[in-house]
Design goal:
The protein is mainly α and 98 residues long. The chain contains two helices and no strands. The protein has one domain.
């Protein structure tokens, strides 16, 4: 008789755990689109910040040395490279977390 009660108790605990996990899974699924949108926005910001800083340094250098847009082109390329590296680092970090 003791084994039957233990088995029923275990079955009850398993059902309670499954119900709890299903509720948690539903909550995380409902937040998934917002989380993905935030990641997309963060990737855009990571890329654009590198480009913006590179272009800003290029414009300032051209103004400082009164040169043609040589520094703008040079630092613009550096900014794009920095943006790509930022996005790559972010993607690598996200793949390690997942």
């Amino acid at each position: 008789m003791k084994k039957s009660a233990d088995i029923q108790n275990l079955a009850h605990k398993i059902d309670a755990f499954k119900t709890k996990e299903q509720a948690k899974d539903t909550t995380s699924r409902s937040l998934a689109p917002a989380r993905d949108a935030f990641k997309g926005l963060q990737i855009c910001i990571e890329f654009l910040s590198g480009v913006f800083i590179g272009l800003s340094i290029g414009i300032f250098s051209d103004w400082l040395f009164s040169s043609r847009p040589v520094f703008l082109a040079l630092f613009g390329i550096f900014g794009v490279c920095a943006g790509v590296l930022n996005v790559r680092r972010f993607a690598k970090q996200e793949s390690e977390v997942s």
